[in-house]
Amino acid sequence: MTSDAPLLELEGICKSYGEGLKTEVLHGVDLSIHKGDVVALVGPSGSGKSTLLNLIGLLDSPTAGRIAIEGEAAEHLDDRDLTQLRGNKLGFIFQSHHLLPGLSVIENVMLPSAASRGGFRPDMRAPAKALLDAVGLGDWTEALPRQLSGGMQQRVAVARALINDPPLVLADEPTGNLDTETSDQVFALLRQRNVERETAFLIVTHNPALARRCDRVVELVDGRVVYEGLPSGMKSED
Q1: For 8-233, CATH number?
Q2: pLDDT tens, 169-181?
């Protein structure tokens, strides 16, 4: 389901690295994501997927071009405003879950809320517990990450990404370290949230089977979009 106004809009995004003779990694990328979209970003290693994801996540700045989230252009924001925009509008899921080992499961889920509100607060526990219930880990709230399997830890990471109810979640190889059954479970969680809340997802993946389960595919090769459309039209299987 989509609305007319893009949730995320990229126009002419370029990114170069180095001094003097620079290496351009992205060459004029255009991309729009609307509320409720589930988009796979695919392409061979070195195609610029991670660079593009870092830019969309406001973790880096483009050399040229425009990034807007819910109509708010990011290129002129200072670090404080970028941090606020990132915290309010974006969720992040990584291939490695990046849970903090010294915090309990529920404290890990509450981290984004604590970051945006200046510390842990009692009223954060109920929504965190609800998300853990939703991902099947409601009985593990006080466990430490080391007591969980890899698949369970990734489900905690999914709950953490959703705690601030972001309109867009960026997922970088979210099932890359998981077996097929656990991968299916994690994707089902994302799709459930997508259906229930119209949360949009941009999923970077090398897995063609996962990409085919998304609504749309954007294929990046050598820093350029070479295909955007239905999964059935993907040019590569990498």
Answers
A1: 3.40.50.300
A2: 999 988 888 888 8
